[in-house]
UniProtKB/TrEMBL annotation:
This is Type III pantothenate kinase. Transmembrane segments: none annotated. It comes from the Bacteria. Pathway: Cofactor biosynthesis; coenzyme A biosynthesis; CoA from (R)-pantothenate: step 1/5. It is found in: Cytoplasm. K(+) binds at D129. InterPro entries: ATPase_NBD, Type_III_PanK. The lineage of its organism: Bacteria, Bacillati, Bacillota, Clostridia, Eubacteriales. Substrate binds at G107, S108, D109, L110, T184.
Length: 256
């Protein structure tokens, strides 16, 4: 079994993978203050929930967009399993052709999602990842990573709206019943949820036009499942895209 770990700005997603089967998936909060010992204890407890002991883990692969947490996790994994982990970054074999001004600026999460999406869905592709930030990655018809866009995440937008205005309350991210809200909360919910869906529809149309060909749209990330049903375009929701991508990269770099 390999342990695949995706360290995001808000959550850490980890999964146990045997072959191509995801045996379990779990989440913990990202906290840059926690020590490696604290993360080690959390990892051990989470594995115990799924009846997994450290000796069952053959290897670990980690992708991170939070460098301080990555360092703590690398140490925690070594303490827990006695083995070093493979880190998604410069020098790793991805099989991905990148056409960017500075390829080293691309987040490891975008690389992992692209590898998985190309493998599962083919090219051309537009990959939507909705988490702390909302990103859209463009893969052209030849499977080349061509660029993308980065937008404020849904929760960031909501926090900015409620934090900067004196009379607007906090709201839940429920599906709005109509675009024209009849009260403050419904109006906010419409603006946040339908606004995110409309933004995706518009950006996807523009990016597809620049690609010059119709593209398959794949969505992942914790927020996507709330917004995808509100979009007018067809988006394929793939909750485990990151874990599948990490498994592919592990196979290409270690098992090969």
């Amino acid at each position: 079994m390999i342990l695949a770990i995706d360290i995001g700005n808000t959550n850490v997603v980890l999964g146990g993978i045997e072959g191509n089967d995801i045996l379990f998936e779990a989440r913990m909060a990202t906290d840059s203050i926690k020590t490696s010992d604290q993360y080690c204890a959390e990892l051990k407890n989470i594995l115990a929930l799924f009846d997994v002991v450290p000796s069952m883990i053959d290897g670990t692969i980690v992708a991170s967009v939070v460098p301080p947490v990555l360092n703590s996790f690398r140490t925690a994994i070594r303490k827990l399993t006695g083995k070093s982990c493979l880190v998604v970054g410069p020098g790793i074999r991805t099989g991905l052709n990148i056409r960017m001004d500075n390829p080293t600026e691309i987040g490891s999460d975008l690389i992992v999602a692209s590898v998985a999406a190309i493998h599962d869905y083919g090219a051309p592709l537009l990959i939507v990842d909705m988490g702390t930030a909302t990103t859209i990655t463009a893969i052209d018809k030849d499977g080349v990573y061509s660029g993308g866009c980065i937008c404020p995440g849904l929760k960031i937008s909501l926090e900015a709206l409620t934090g900067r205005t004196a009379q607007l309350p906090g709201i839940s991210l429920d599906e709005p019943q109509r675009a024209i809200g009849k009260n403050t909360r419904d109006a906010m919910r419409s603006g946040i949820m339908f606004g995110a869906a409309a933004m995706l529809d518009g950006l996807l149309d523009r990016m597809e036009q620049e690609l010059g060909t119709p593209a398959t749209v794949v969505a992942t990330g914790g927020i996507s499942k709330f917004v995808v049903p509100l979009c007018r375009r067809k988006l394929l929701y793939d909750r485990t895209l990151m874990l599948k991508g990490l498994n592919l990269l592990y196979q290409r770099n270690v098992r090969a």
